[in-house]
Specification:
Blueprint: E1 7-11, H1 29-41, E2 45-49, H2 70-76, H3 79-84, E3 101-104, H4 110-113, H5 118-129, E4 133-137, E5 160-161, H6 166-171, H7 182-188, E6 192-193, E7 204-207, E8 210-213, H8 219-231
Parallel strand pairs: 1-2, 1-3, 3-4, 4-8, 5-6
Antiparallel strand pairs: 7-8
C-alpha cells in the first residue's frame, strides 16, 4: 500500500519527577501507545529516543482508570514493548536521515528535559529541513520551543501549533507545580497557538508538515494525520 516502509522516531522523557522529588511524573503512556498502534497498522518502522537515552519512566496518573485504556494496557502487558522503554536510544545514536517523521510525546517530565536538549533539536531540525514531518502531542510541544532551523529562525515562529493549555494545567490541578507556562512560552516564540473550545477534547492542528495535538486524547488523531501525510 502507499506509505509503506516509512520510519518514525518517537521521543520520550527521562524525567521521573517534578521540581519536588516526591511528586513523580514521566511519559504519558497512551500518547505513545495510541500513535504506535496507528503507525504499526500502516506498516511503518518505529524507534524511540530520549534526551539522555536509557529508561523512560511512566507517569503514574496515566496508569489509573479511566485514563489507562486498552491501548496503554496492551503496552503495559507486553514485556517486549516495555523493554523498549528501558533502553531508548540517546540522540547521538540516532541518524536523522533514516527517519521520515518525528513525534514528541508528552507527560509533564518533558517540560524539564525536552526544551534545551541540543541533540533532539538537531534531529528535529534535520528531519524538518529534509522534508520530513515534525509532530508533537500535549506537553511534547515543549520539545519544539527552542528548536532553530539552519537559518537561525525558530521552527515554530509564525506557524500554527497547539499543545496542553494553561487552562488544562489548572483544571488538572497541577498548574502550581509547573516550571513554566508552556502555552505562554510558545506564544512568546511567535507561534500561532490555538486550542479547542473545550478542554481535554481531541484537537489537532496541521500547518504544512508540522502536526501538533493539544492533549492526551489527541494522540490517535495526530498519528492518523501524520500517517496521511506520509502517504503523500
Amino acid at each position: 500500500m502507499a506509505g509503506m516502509g516509512k520510519r518514525i522516531l518517537h521521543v520520550v522523557t527521562n524525567r521521573d519527577h517534578y521540581d519536588d522529588p516526591g511528586r513523580p511524573t514521566g511519559l504519558w503512556l497512551s500518547e505513545l501507545s495510541h500513535a504506535w498502534d496507528v503507525f504499526a497498522a500502516e506498516g511503518h518502522a518505529q524507534d524511540i529516543v530520549s534526551p539522555a537515552g536509557g529508561r523512560s519512566p511512566l507517569e503514574p496518573r496515566a496508569l489509573k482508570w479511566p485514563l489507562l485504556d486498552a491501548s496503554a494496557r496492551g503496552w503495559l502487558n507486553d514485556p517486549a514493548r516495555m523493554a523498549l522503554l528501558e533502553r531508548t536510544a540517546a540522540p547521538d545514536q540516532v541518524d536523522p536521515d533514516a527517519y521520515d517523521a518525528i513525534y514528541f510525546t508528552g507527560g509533564h517530565g518533558v517540560m524539564w528535559d525536552f526544551p534545551d536538549n541540543a541533540g533532539l533539536q538537531a534531529i528535529a531540525r534535520r528531519i524538518w529541513e529534509k522534508g520530513g514531518i515534525v509532530s508533537s502531542v500535549c506537553h511534547g510541544y515543549c520539545g519544539l520551543l527552542n528548536t532553530r532551523l539552519s537559518d537561525g529562525t525558530l521552527l515554530v515562529a509564525g506557524r500554527q501549533v497547539t499543545g496542553f493549555s494553561w487552562t488544562e494545567e489548572i483544571l488538572a490541578g497541577v498548574a502550581r507545580h509547573m516550571p513554566y507556562d508552556a502555552e505562554a512560552e510558545m506564544k512568546r516564540r511567535g507561534a500561532r497557538y490555538g486550542k479547542a473550545l473545550l478542554p481535554f477534547v481531541s484537537h489537532v492542528v496541521t500547518d504544512g508538515r508540522l502536526v501538533t495535538g493539544q492533549n492526551p486524547g489527541s494522540a490517535k488523531a495526530i498519528a492518523r494525520q501524520v500517517a496521511r501525510l506520509l502517504r503523500g
